[in-house]
Amino acid sequence: MQKQELSYEDTKFTLDTYWLDPISDFDEPLDHPLAIICPGGAFKFHTDRESQPIAMKFNAEGIHALVLRYQLIDDEHTVYPLALQELATTLNWLKAQSKSHQIDLSKILLVGFSAGGHVVADFNSIMLNPDERKKIFPEELEVQPAANILGYSVIDMTLGWPREEEWTMKVSSDIYYWQAQEHLTKDGKPTFMWQTVTDGTVPVMNSIIYAQKMDFLGIPYELHLFGSGDHGLSLATYVTQNPNNEANLNVYDAKWWELCVNWLKLQKILPKL
What is the CATH class of 2-22+29-266? Predict the structure, then answer.
């Protein structure tokens, strides 16, 4: 893993990069899809449980991965709109990296968990609408995502998370950014979603309302709701288990990864075997 520092205007942010090395005995160079991962952490921090382990799972499927250390709440900034501007900057930066790192720019994935999922959902809803994007990001979006993956994501910040409106105001004082589903248009990209119905942190209705809006707009989606399991499962295996926390393990919910890989094949991001 290597750190890459980028900036939007006068604000710097960091990417953790997990590049696949070229295979030297191939006759021709092979371009790979790429996943940009936005980990959760309640906009307070970026959890490592949804960072390197997820990136390396993508690598194992032949997909480059970046972990975006997007804007968090601090004394100087709210999360929005800066997190969206950082994600747009990252996408545009990929264009200059496509040759040296063999990136297939037509197969870029945005991946979000929990609070990071809100960043991805807001991007899908707001930033892919050219008229709305120009209000906060006047540059052209030179590289567009092909699809999204959302895990137990916050979609609507009025549905139970955050529990205090004071924290919601710290995320953004502009209610425009609170409800990702309200701004979704037909410009949105296909999306894979998964969550547990027993999620005690982010109400499952978040995933349901985003799927409903996608269904209404005719945007392809796949939604998996598992019958048990806590919030923040990540891979739901021992790889991302916090020591001595059995709630991080769920053999049934861990199937989300296999289902997601199958969906990526259906979307022609990965080849069908």
Answer: alpha beta
